[in-house]
Amino acid sequence: MTSTIPPLPERLRAIVDAGYPRFSDHEMASRRARIKALLAEAQCNHLIFCGANRFGSGVQWLTGWPVTAEAVGVFTPGEQDALFVQYHNHVPLARTLADRANVRWGELSCIRMVAAELERRGAQAGKVGYIGPLTADQHEVLAGRFNAIKNLNKSYVRLRMIKTLEELDWLRIGAHFSDLGMMALRDGVRPGLTERELGDLVERAYVAQGALNVIHYFGVTPMRDPQVAVPAQFPSTRRVAAGDIVFAEISAAFWDYPGQVLRSFALGEPTPLYRELHAVADAAFDAIATVLRDGTTPAQVIEAAQMIEDAGFTTIDDLVHGYGGGYLPPILGSASRPAGPVPEEPFRAGMTVVIQPNVVTKDHEAGVQTGEMVLVTKDGIERMHAMERGFLSLSP
After folding, report:
1. 157 and 302, same structural domain?
2. In this structure, is residue 15 part of a structural domain?
3. Domain boundary among 109, 141, 161
């Protein structure tokens, strides 16, 4: 009998049920203190934080405003943040959500408004840094007035790698919503549905509860004639059939805080190849989970998953990556599919990472998905997800 997902604890349910949930004054003050320290280390007096087209996590992290079309802000220690939002009709809600900032319309150019605000604040050449996606045109406007603008994105990413207790609560909500999506796929998949309809199943499970869809990637292929080894980023019109494997990677978010869960389902009896693929993937997950704790090195994690290569398989996706506040370091590939030089910096307590040994055949024709986001602790890991693990065989 398949499991169900337990309801959110009342403490987390209260956050979800708020009209517009907010982090505490203490949390927001702590973020500002860390940005102030980041600026001091970079010998800067002002920070530009920017985003566009729903990208740029620093804007929401500092102000509470999820970026829509474009938003650019100015942070100066000791002063109220200025936030310029494109599209005049987005300003009213931005003022509600980013109520600690001075929110204004960006008029014809947010970045020119920011440049004028920096001049008003007495910004000096070489003393301005930025985080977020600054375009070449935006950089040209700023450099013309303040010379070189220092790129502080790497420092910001490092800052986001360790989660606060309040952030972990929001991530647990995102993990819960992601589990609901995967459970809906497990319980609703059947022959005849298209991959587009699988997406409908998944989103119906969490959108009405306050979640935002981040991704739902599906892979569907016959187990006796496999042609797909990794989920696709866009769904096809192919219909699910008896004898298929359906595997998925699902992330739903509570505001800017997502979960990530990966699972595989067989519509009928799994073939020996798929049983072996998933057994190796499960063993690799367990091995990584066993060694992962505060102080574990990336090299130790990769070594723990060596059974993938020993079994004659490889991977396509990353083996482990940081998550929550972006796709974060460390980003590790397997021994046979490295993701670049192996970093030396160890894992630290407070990181949230996704363990995802998605094992595939060397010809990239067959593969499975398994994994989920976990919290690194001093003594090991803590599960953030409740969705059952394992390779489930479903009646077609």
Report:
1. no
2. no
3. 161
243: left (phi over 0), alpha (psi -120 to 50) or beta: left
pLDDT digits (tens, 9 = 90+) for 99-124: 999 999 999 999 999 999 999 999 99
The label of the residue with tokens 């994105």 reads: 153
HSE (side-chain half, CA atoms, 13 Å) at 147: 6
Q: How far apart are CA 83 and CA 94, in angstroms?
A: 9
Taking all residues of the chain, what is their mean pLDDT, rounded to a whole number?
97
Could you give the 3-state DSSP secondary structure of residue 199?
helix
Cα–Cα dist 253/251, whole Å: 7
Instruction: Determine which helix (DSSP H) or strand (DSSP E) holds 249, and give its type and residue range.
Output: strand 244-254
d(CA 388, CA 204): 20
Q: 3-state SS of the chain: helix, strand, coil percent to 5?
A: 35, 25, 40
Yes or no: say if 70 and 86 are a contact pair by the CB < 8 Å rule: yes
The domain boundary residue, chosen from 161, 194, 209:
161
Tokens of 310: 């020993």
pTM of the model: 0.96
Q: Tell me: the pLDDT tens digits for 294-353?
A: 999 999 999 999 999 999 999 999 999 999 999 999 999 999 999 999 999 999 999 999
Closest CA to 240 of 182, 201, 193: 193
